[in-house]
Each structure stands twice: as C-alpha cells, then as structure tokens.
Amino acid sequence: MRFKKQCPSWEFLHHHYTYDPKTGCLYWKNPPIGRAQLGDKVYLKGVYPRIEIKRDGKVHSFLAHRIVWKMYYGEDL
Fold first, then answer.
1. Residues 15-52: pLDDT tens digits?
2. Strands 25-28 and 17-20, sheet pairing
3. What is the C-alpha separation between 30 and 33, in angstroms, rounded?
4. What is the DSSP code string of 21-34?
5. Residue 49 CA to chain centroid, in angstroms?
6. What pTM was estimated for this model as a whole?
7. Assuming Cys at both sites, which of 14, 45, 46, 70 could form a disulfide with 7, CB separation 3.0 to 4.6 Å?
8. Cα 59 from Cα 38, distance rounded (Å)
C-alpha cells in the first residue's frame, strides 16, 4: 500500500477555504496575497485536480477531493 500524506488540519482548511456542497466548489476565505480575491473560486484544472498548500516552508500538493472530504467529514480519506 502506498503511503499518503496527511491532509492539513480541519481548522487550517476552514481558515483558508469555504466548500459549497450544492455546487461542489471551493472558494477562498483567506487567499494568498496577490493570487486571488476573497470569495473567488479556487481554480482547479486537470483530470485529477490538485490543491497546492504551503506548509513548513514547502509546497505540498493534495488531490482536491481529499481536501473536500476532510472539510466536509473532518477525517482523512
């Protein structure tokens, strides 16, 4: 079995993003400076959309559906 990176904490995700279960979209709550505006939709592209999150001075990439699962259910997928 392949090792999976642990998603950021529920608190961290809810500090930075808002999830709308009706549309399935993520929106910025606290966007990075210069990249997006408050309330903008988080731009996801590709067949397997990923979200890049900076932690501990490094950029980590997570599959978007894992982030949404953690935000909605409060546990890692």
1. 999 999 998 889 999 887 777 888 888 888 778 899 88
2. antiparallel
3. 9
4. TTTTEEEESSPPTT
5. 10
6. 0.80
7. 70
8. 21
Q: How far apart are CA 69 and CA 59, in angstroms?
A: 20
Which residue type occupies 60?
A: H
Element (H, E) at 53: strand 50-55
Neighbouring-strand partners of residue 36: none
> With b meaning 16 or more CB within 10 Å and e meaning fewer, what string describes 30-55?
ebeeeeeeeeeebeeeeeeebbebee
For 68, the token pair is 């949404």
Report how far residue 77's alpha carbon sits from residue 29's, in angstroms, rounded to the nearest whole number.
23
Q: How many residues does the chain have?
A: 77
User: From CA 43, how far away is CA 49, in angstroms rounded?
Assistant: 9
